[in-house]
Write a structure and sequence with these properties.
- The chain folds into two domains: 17-130, no CATH class; 142-437, Peptidase S8/S53 domain (Rossmann fold).
- Strands 1, 2, 3, 4, 5, 9 and 11 form a seven-stranded mixed sheet that branches.
- It has helices spanning 26-35, 55-65, 82-85, 104-109, 142-157, 171-174, 178-182, 232-241, 275-287, 305-316, 393-410, 417-426, 434-437; strands at residues 42-50, 70-72, 91-94, 99-102, 124-135, 196-201, 216-220, 260-265, 272-274, 292-295, 297-298, 320-324, 348-353, 370-373, 377-380, 387-390.
- It has 445 residues and is α/β, with parallel strands linked by helices.
């Protein structure tokens, strides 16, 4: 979706925070939402998704017909400071994925809201409220592990699950995490060489000793340092791309240990962010031709056209977006639907399994494409802790992403939709509903 690379400098007249403009940070947006009596899910801004192939026309329409001051992500080096430098703009466009962020006041004053009447001739596909996004992990302390174990035992006793085979894993003996063993990673001859893996999360601990000497490209879209203050991003990066042989008495936890890491910080130091920040990271990953884009984040909302557009653009560029289904369930009584962005048809959604290959009690259902290990997952953590065990569909997702990198390395033809098809075709079938595990447990080549 190429557009002309015309410099669109923001106007000197910046709007105020109350205007919910495009440069506001997440905390300010959250505070404004609370003060205004909002639903706590939406930011007060809007996401415009252009029709396929109509990005050029959409930008022109916003500039000439509606008089919006535009900022283009391509006009900012590495796209890292797009929101800060666009402080005086009314809208920011991400042309590679065909979407734009509209400031609240600018959109409302021009009738560019979710209730707008869009004609067939309009280059706009939809205008939707922008949602907050959050890290999708579930902390796995002793209490939670006990809850999970008890709930799953009760579920099995009640006969609410179909019996499945037990995973024959003993990580303490083999020196490899149970998840990697279940995914058949140790015997794989692939290591991710030549494959770019983008992890869009809370950042990364750039001084982590397990990653010394690795190729790591970084960008932040939240106005904060790439340094991971939450731990979530370092953990997911570790599973997907961590070392084959960590120093010291540490079991192997990483899959694509020679891949090129692209760490994009789209969630701030509180583990929260906005839809536009996630889209900015997706745009950046697509621009950099990252064959695998891993997103362990989300919101418990319906399908978002902007994410569907981003997923389609990624596939067209030979990239595959893989996202966590979410942890809003409490099985067997409550099974909530897969959240966004994973619920988009162009994005691969991941459910979570425990070491017995039962569905994790927290794992969402419905639109699930594939499953990965997501309970008691050991991986890297920011210094000084270095390693930690946690649970969530967030932890299942990088298992799929890491295996995707190995498959992508195995053949140059396995890109985009072909890579997705290979992951599904080679998954280990489980005697469980597809609405819980999709094609089954991801497997390495």
């Amino acid at each position: 979706m190429a557009t002309k690379n015309t410099k669109r400098g923001p106007s000197a007249a910046a709007t105020t925070d109350k205007d919910l403009h495009v440069a506001m940070d997440t905390e300010s947006l959250l505070l404004a939402a609370l003060e205004s009596g909002g639903d706590g899910k939406t930011t007060g801004r809007y996401i415009m998704t252009f029709k396929e192939g109509a990005t050029d026309a959409g930008i022109k329409n916003l500039e000439t017909t509606h008089g919006l001051r535009m900022a283009d992500a391509r006009d900012f080096k590495n796209q890292a400071t797009v929101f800060e430098q666009a402080a005086g703009a009314d809208a920011v466009v991400f042309p590679e994925i065909g979407v734009a962020l509209l400031g609240g006041a600018a959109a409302t004053s021009r009738g560019l809201t979710a209730s707008a009447d869009i004609s067939d001739a309009d280059p706009t596909h939809s205008i939707d409220p922008e949602y907050f996004m959050f890290a999708d992990g579930v902390n796995a302390d002793d209490y939670l592990r006990g809850v999970i174990h008890t709930a799953q035992m009760i579920a099995r006793d009640l006969g609410s699950r179909v019996a499945v085979e037990e995973a024959e894993v003993t990580p303490s003996v083999l020196g490899v995490t149970w998840g990697l063993i279940a995914c058949k990673v140790p015997p794989s001859l692939r290591d991710g060489t030549g494959i770019k893996v983008a992890i869009l999360d809370t950042g990364f601990d750039m001084g982590h000793p397990d990653f010394a000497g690795r190729s790591i490209t970084t960008n932040t879209f939240v106005g904060q340092s790439i340094q991971d203050m939450v731990g979530h991003g370092t953990h997911t990066t570790g599973t997907a791309c961590g070392p084959k042989s960590p120093a010291g008495a540490v079991q192997r936890y990483g899959i694509a240990f020679k891949s090129q890491i692209f760490a994009g910080k789209v969630l701030n130091n509180s583990g929260s962010g906005t839809q536009a920040q996630s889209l900015a990271g997706m745009n950046w990953a697509v621009v950099n031709k990252c064959q695998v884009i891993s997103m362990s984040l989300g919101a418990q909302v319906g399908v978002q056209p902007s994410y569907t557009s981003a997923g389609a653009a990624a596939l067209a560029a030979g990239c595959l977006i893989i996202a966590a289904a979410g942890n809003a369930s409490n099985r067997p009584g409550t099974i909530n639907p897969c959240g966004a962005p994973a619920n988009s048809p162009t994005i691969m959604s991941v459910g979570a399994l425990d070491s017995s290959l039962h569905v994790a009690v927290f794992s969402n259902g419905g639109k699930i494409d594939i499953a990965g290990p997501g309970v008691d997952v050991f991986s890297s953590w920011p210094r000084p802790i270095l390693h930690k065990t946690i649970s969530g569909t967030s932890m299942a997702t990088p298992h799929v992403s890491g295996c995707a990198a190995l498959w992508a390395q195995s053949s140059a033809t396995l890109r985009g939709a072909a890579l997705r098809a290979k992951l599904l075709a080679t998954a280990k079938h489980l005697p469980l509903p597809a609405s819980d595990v999709g094609a089954g447990l991801v497997q390495a080549p």
